[in-house]
Every structure is written in C-alpha cells, then in structure tokens.
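Repro:
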Amino acid sequence: MFWENPELDEVDTFSLEILLRKNPETELGFDYLGKREGSGYNFIEGVLFSISHKDSIVTYYPEKNISRMNQSSMYLTNSPIRLLKNGPWNYLGDTAIDGKTYSEFLWIEMDTTIMEKKVLLKNHLFINPSNELADFYSRRLYHDGKKNQFIDVYYSSYEFDELGEELVYEIPQGYVSKVWGQKDPEAAQVLSKGDLAHDFQLADENGGLVRLSDFRGKKVLLDFSMINCGWCKIALEQFNKPDYQFAENIVPLYVNPVDSKEKMDKYRSKVAIPFPVLINAEEIGKAYGVSGYPTFFLIDENGKVEDVVVGFIDEEILKWKKGVV
C-alpha cells in the first residue's frame, strides 16, 4: 500500500497480510488474522483484538464497538473481499498497466461540496481477467478538481485452500491484555462535558512552554489534530478564512499527539495554522482519551470541559466564531 501525504510531498508504504476463513456465524461471514510489522489485528469467533509487539499489549474491543472497528479496519477496507462488496462498481473497459491487460471498474464514493470545497472520491479496481483476481486498487481524492491524495494498493501472493482448522492466535508470553476504552492512565475514555480538563505543559513550535492552567478565566479550544488527516486540514482551512475570527474569550491551541517536530515544521511551511502549535503531546492525547482526529475540547474559564466534538462538523466549527459565542 502506497499512501500519499500531499502536504509533505511524501508517501508512506505499508505491507499488510491477511488470512481469512469462512465463518457464517459472524456478522462478517468470516474470521481473519491481520498482520503487519510490529502489530496485528484479529477477528476470531466474534472476538476482535489488536496486538502491539512494541508495547507487548493485547487490546480487546467491547462487543458494542466491534462492528464500527471492523468497518474502519485498514486490513478490511482495502482488501478485495471488502471492496467487491462495496459499490456500485461500473465496468469502464479493458486497460493496460505495465504491459498487462486488466478489466477496470469504477465506484464513485463521494461527489459533493463541503464548506464550498468540491470533493470527489473515486475508487478504481483492476481485475486480472485471466484469473478474475484483483491485482490493483486506487483510491483517488480530488478537491476542487485537483488531485489531493491517492492511495494505491497492490495485491500479491494469493493462496486458496480447502476449509481447514479454525483460526487460532497464540498470545505471546509476557503480553498484557487490556480492554479498549477502559478508564485507566494508559487507555482513558474521551473526556466528557463537566469533566475537569487535565492540566499540561507542552512546548510550542518556537520552543516556548504553554500551560493550560495559565488560561484560567478564558475559554480554551484544544484542536487535537494530526498531519495525515484530511478533515483536520479542512478544519484549518475554515479557521484560516478572512471572515473567521474566534470569539474574544476563546484561546485556540493546536495539539498534535502523533507527529514529530520535524514533520510538523515541514507541514507548517505548507499549511497555515493560525494559532499556537503544541507538539510531543502523545501523553496528553492519551489523558484526554483521543483516538480519532480531529477531536475538539472547549475548556471553560474554570478548567472544566464545556464541549466535546469528535470529527469535523461544520455547524460545530462555526459556533466558536466571534459574534456567535
């Protein structure tokens, strides 16, 4: 998988392996073992769990979250077995890539306008007509008619066997098991309205220190974002518009728990962030229970969480403007 990061002019490369076995007793109709360097993601007999070999941790997901987690799993969303069930796919004709002939299919997943930006998301699937297997998949995102991000996936090493024994995963010795969302220092739940916001001291982009408690008496908007997040960038575009000014009693802060200072410096040279950027915030992200981006926390004058918004929602973004709050 080649995952473009257009803001940095970089491409991340992932190599994934997935083993599937039919199981009509589960909602997916199959069990699977997903593996990549340093981690794994498995769904066996209705139980979903991930493995971090770096931390020696096995994380189990509550039953109520399994369907959503499977829907967003990188192992499934880009796998032929899931793609072939998406659609509708339309046959475009035969095409040649690197001297090989393929049957090309198109599925337009999104064609809409979001905050005055035209968003077009096209999926191209290339089937090898000699064996009817997917060889190549391309997910192509355009903003206002211009290329934004392409994700290209190449498939290889197909193997098909008669239904064998049930899938089993042996947890390595010494690994610790945890429940996803369990409220502890390592896996906190997302802070809720009324919770006391965790104080922190983080370095900004210029090396200065910013402490949350220094803003007592004002509201603070924490924008938890990361570089490789399209909705995070769209939110920044709204904040950068000439007619967008935050309410006078709101202090906005950009908090990045994921990316290094070096990457953020490169990102900021291309993308304007109109308020202080706080880096090396991995522990703060955990403390606030952030697992998706962007996530916004509005902290009131007394240091308590006044509002929480997970994901980009234009109506929520607008309510922090001057003259609205």
